[in-house]
Write a structure and sequence with these properties.
Two copies of one chain form a homodimer. The first copy, chain A, is an alpha/beta fold and 360 residues long. Chain A contains twelve helices and twelve strands. In chain A, helix 1 crosses helix 2, helix 5 packs parallel to helix 12 and helix 10 packs across helix 11. The structure holds a DNA duplex (30 and 30 nucleotides).
Chain lengths: 360, 360
DNA sequence: AGTGATGATGTTATCGGTAACATAAACTGG
DNA sequence: CCAGTTTATGTTACCGATAACATCATCACT
């Protein structure tokens, strides 16, 4: 590379301007694709910029223009495919709109989220995305004060910090509960992770309980293993559920499909036939379902669509366009083969669109 | 909040300095935790900063100090748990060292990676992480020119752009092949995704073939479905493998454990008993193995450790400390129950540490 | 040719900090 | 008690760009 420079310092706008014999403003205009430079100059400048390997310094640019193309994204974990899928949905939109995503995980710890928000805000990003609707007050206030467009995703509330798109987890859990009630189950148990780690899961559990209490089943025993929802923790907790319960449950509702699959393995290891001896239901419509002989009964959430929708809303807000403030997306109940089939006599049909029927 | 400000503009360093009756340098020092401010002043300034909700502008700070706490991370996809786990391993180290990660996915498209590098470089990040060792020349050159510490992760080479930590995929595939050879398999087939999407997987396939060619098996038929390695694509491709092959394979080597599990389901659906009628091997040591009645034969890769190690190397390099340039990590062969058990007579033991024995 | 509109180009101030140097204040020891 | 040092604080220049405004050339039209 004999480009005339002797030093290894990366080229800056001034170098390009000097080389081209123009002012730095012309270079700036060309690099940003702004009008007001003759076609001849433009090509000259572009050629020189390329030759010098000039890349505009976005840090300086952002400071001067008081704008940014950074979008901060906070997710609890990437081990749940849910968030990977939501992220995939967003990524596409953002990338097309010219934004970059700065991502980090909080491991379900509110305080970690708070500190992340703090650090993030100081980068003056164009927007911020948080998972769920439970945040520390300090994080909330900081975002509002800084005036940064904020999207809350995955959970749903009518009163978001700014924008929100998600599903109603309480209603989703209740829909599953009602479905199981309709199938005749009366001795349910819930299998999840330790309390306090996943508020959405707890909301589903409560919705689930409500459905059964409507039928007079007032207590739903719950079993918890670990902090992380995995195949393995599902198996462990399910084993405990099968061993400990005096009157055996007739159906297990799991925090998600990962745990449900682990639980399914546990049941089979116990010599139980699913769904003859016990029913199993999960959550999320994990793609493992596509290959199982007996697909899991589960709730299908629109993860990718949710990510894309949220991203569109946020971009609209950033660009000053009008957009909806809060969207509650439907959850589709999938009646798999890990719960007993519908009795022919009953007129019951699976409850679709759990989200449409809001709690409260 | 009656903090004396009437406007909604976020506080800047000048506001704090004025309010405290000191110069902005004192505030700057306090906020950065630099020495040279009396304890009394320090507490005063911190109190005022807190009251005004002052958060230093990192964009301005980075520009002035010509440093950054941003680390760019590029992964092909988040749908493979591999990258989520590598990322988790890194995240921890970076977060402790005070760096933020800017992540994006390339969908296995080199050109997308190139454009991402371009955009990223203009943020002058402290470091950059790329997945794999195959990159466009332009991306390579740009990183070298900009002098940004770069880590290549997951694949391994002795001649990295800058730093590298990964596993030897060729050797890993060969180790599996030799293991299967030792178990007496002679009619192998490979099941993966379309060529050109995952170079690491192809390297494993070639290593696998080499192992069999050592035993005179010169052709290993391969079956490919889809661009994405999923449970479902594994099932589809395996079905094709079972249906199309004139002389049926006695063992199937899958691109990863996801596909292997899908394949296992396909085999069972075909009425085949695994491992009696056919063997199955995967790659990665996915955690589904912990709950399966017959755990998959697979290769366990140290994903989290790899992420952490890579992050440490990169941090060291950024801080100017000495660090190894390239690390090849071991892959552990796991002899599961989806391949036939070892014949008692043979003195064979599973081949460990596939990575130690480098190709070429 | 004169005049206002239009488009191309340059000048100046500024974005919000930090580095390096300068200066004032406090301390130390003989 | 004063030079010599250390510690605290302030001043100035600059990081690499952009916004807003100023200037100059060009052009159409009367």
């Amino acid at each position: 590379m004999t480009d005339g420079r002797t030093d290894r310092r990366p080229a800056k706008i001034e170098d390009v301007a000097r080389e081209a014999g123009v002012s730095i403003m012309s270079v700036s205009r060309v690099m940003r694709g702004v009008e007001g430079v003759s076609a001849k100059r433009r090509t000259e400048i572009l050629a020189i910029a390329k030759r010098l390997g000039y890349a505009p310094n976005r840090v300086a640019g952002s400071l001067a223009a008081a704008n940014s193309t950074l979008i901060g994204v906070s997710v609890p974990t990437l081990f749940e495919a849910v968030f990977a899928e939501i992220f995939a949905g967003m990524r596409d939109i953002f990338s097309k709109a010219g934004f970059q995503t700065v991502m980090d995980t909080t491991e379900y710890q509110p305080d970690r989220e708070r500190r992340w928000v703090s650090r993030m805000v100081s980068w003056h990003p164009a927007g911020i995305i948080l998972s769920g609707i439970d945040h520390t007050n300090r994080a909330r206030r900081q975002l509002v004060d800084a005036g940064i467009p904020t999207l809350e995703i995955w959970d749903h509330t009518d009163d978001p910090i700014d924008l929100c798109v998600g599903v109603d987890h309480f209603a989703a859990g209740r829909a599953v509960g009602r479905h199981l009630v309709a199938l005749g189950y009366r001795r349910p148990a819930y299998v999840g992770i330790e309390c306090g780690w996943d508020r959405r899961a707890e909301a589903r559990f409560h919705g689930f309980c409500e459905a059964f209490s409507e039928k007079g089943v007032t207590r739903v025993p719950d079993f918890r293993a670990d902090r992380r929802a995995s195949f393995e923790s599902g198996r462990c907790a399910a084993e405990r559920a099968l061993g400990e319960l005096a009157d055996n449950p007739d159906v297990l509702y799991f925090l998600n499909d990962h745990m449900a699959f682990g639980g399914l393995m546990a049941c089979e290891a116990h010599g139980l036939d699913v769904p003859r001896d016990i029913g199993i239901a999960g959550f999320n419509g994990l793609n493992i379902n596509a290959v199982l002989k007996k697909p899991l009964t589960t709730s299908i959430t629109p993860r990718t669509l949710m990510g894309a929708t949220g991203a569109r809303m946020l971009v609209a807000k950033i660009l000053g366009a009008k957009t909806e403030r809060s969207i509650c997306m439907p959850v589709e109940l999938f009646a798999g083969e890990t719960t007993r089939p519908l009795r022919a006599s009953s007129g019951f049909r699976p409850v679709l669109d759990a989200g449409a029927n809001k709690r409260g």
